[in-house]
Amino acid sequence: MKRFLFIAAALSFLAAVPAKAEDVGKVGVDWIGNDIVVEAIKDPKVDGVICHVAYFDRSIIDRLHKGNWFEDPSNTAISCNQTGPITIGDIDMGKGGEEVFKQGISLIWKKQVVNRIFDKENNTLIYLSHSRQVQNGSAKMAISTVPLYGQQVNWAKDKKQ
């Protein structure tokens, strides 16, 4: 019985793990090795939508020169688009939405996060890219929307909930 409960707990944890990013591009921006990285993120609960996120990746030389060795800037850009038929799973319909993606951009505390919010009134998926910190949160953010108007959308649950 203990083994069954352990396996059930492990599977429920895995189901809650946010999406993973796939590197799709890297552009050098200067001679000291700073780059802009572009990653593709598939929403784990919405099939047919892909988000591309770009962020600044500081080089070792830049870290040594400017100090602040353990973190990258909070700036991000995001663009999300429909890539096929949309099937929406069991998403959080609340105003706070839910986290779709998270990765560290500092040694310990700072995270780059993508949240999905469903705008019921306008029938639109909103993706918000921002950084999250323990204190001194950043106002730097980017937003992208995927309108569902006129689309054949399949819902795992009734969207009016």
Q: In short, what is this structure?
A:
Helix content is 13%, strand content 47%.
How many strands in all? 9
How would you sum up the major sheet?
A: 5 strands, mixed
| Physical arrangement of strands within the biggest beta sheet | 1-2-3-4-9
**Multimeric state:** single chain
Give the mean pLDDT.
76
Helix-residue proportion: 10-25%
CA radius of gyration is 18 Å
Element pattern in H and E: HEEEHEEEEEE
- Tally of separate helices: 2
In what range is the share of β-strand residues?
Answer: over 45%
- Give the N-to-C terminal Cα separation: 35 Å
Structural class: mainly beta
Number of domains: 1
* Shape call: elongated
Uncertain stretches of 5 or more adjacent residues: 1-16
Describe this structure in words.
- The protein has 161 residues and is mainly beta.
- Helices cover 13% and strands 47% of the residues.
- It is built from two helices and nine strands, in the order H-E-E-E-H-E-E-E-E-E-E.
- It has helices at 2-15, 60-66; strands spanning 21-28, 35-42, 46-57, 76-88, 98-104, 111-119, 124-132, 141-147, 153-155.
- The strands form two sheets. It has a five-stranded mixed beta sheet, with no helix packed on it. The chain has a four-stranded antiparallel beta sheet with strand order 5-6-7-8, with no helix packed on it.
- The longest helix has 14 residues, at 2-15.
- It is elongated.
